[in-house]
Amino acid sequence: MKTKISILLLLVISMVACKTPEARKPVSHNSGSFINESIQRNKKLIKQEEDKS
Q1: d(Cα 42, Cα 36) in Å, to the nearest integer?
Q2: pTM of model > 0.70
């Protein structure tokens, strides 16, 4: 009888442990201005490198 209870308890614990992970929520939402500034910087650098050649 104890073995049946322990097996059942083990199965229940393993089912709870196999729950699908939930995604974390972002801390803050960026507007994307960093990406746009980076694009402009890269375009400027590429133009400078092409002008040097």
Answers
A1: 10
A2: no
Tokens of 4: 């049946």
| Cα separations in angstroms, 20 against 10, 11, 16, 26, 39 | 18, 16, 9, 19, 38
Query: Whole-angstrom Cα distance, residue 43 to residue 1?
Result: 74
- In tens digits, the chain (53 residues) has pLDDT values of 889 999 999 988 888 777 777 888 877 766 778 888 999 999 999 999 999 87
CA distances from 22 to 19, 25, 32 (A): 9, 9, 25
